[in-house]
Amino acid sequence: MAQQPNDGYFEVVWPRAARAAKRKALAPRLASLEGRKIAQLWDFLFRGDEVFALLEEGLAQRYPDIRFVSWREIGNTHASDERAVLAALPGRLRAMGVDAVVSGMGC
């Protein structure tokens, strides 16, 4: 049997590229959801209408003064104009007085 030119050794290439963006610190967590306004973001891909209804119900029981901005008001975050929707989102959330976001669902 003929000897392999690489003598059994192969170059290994790491499949991940160099990091393109620097890491940013996460926003601090809220101490409580009591009295807070929570926006619901949904990509319309997996049963968010059902999940958000249950989440709203459970959180309202635990935090009676919590308020929600429904996914219906925000709209689809995964549509043909996704880039524009997401670029405008921080300003919209600030204008609505949103304290936190629950984003879902994916598939």
Write up what this structure looks like.
The protein has a three-stranded parallel sheet with strand order 2-1-3. By secondary structure, the protein is α/β, with parallel strands linked by helices. It has a domain at 37-104. The radius of gyration is 22 Å and the shape is elongated. The chain is 32% helix and 13% strand.
Shape: elongated
Distance between the termini: 50 Å
Total count of strands? 3
CA radius of gyration is 22 Å
Low-confidence stretches: none
Q: Write down the overall mean pLDDT.
A: 87
The number of distinct helices, counting runs of at least 4 residues, comes to 3
- For the biggest β-sheet, the strand order reads 2-1-3
Question: What does the main sheet amount to?
Answer: 3 strands, parallel
Helix/strand-derived category reads alpha/beta
Q: How much strand content do the residues show?
A: 5-15%
Helix content: 25-40%
The H-and-E topology, N to C, reads as EHEHHE
Outline:
This protein has 107 residues and is an alpha/beta fold.
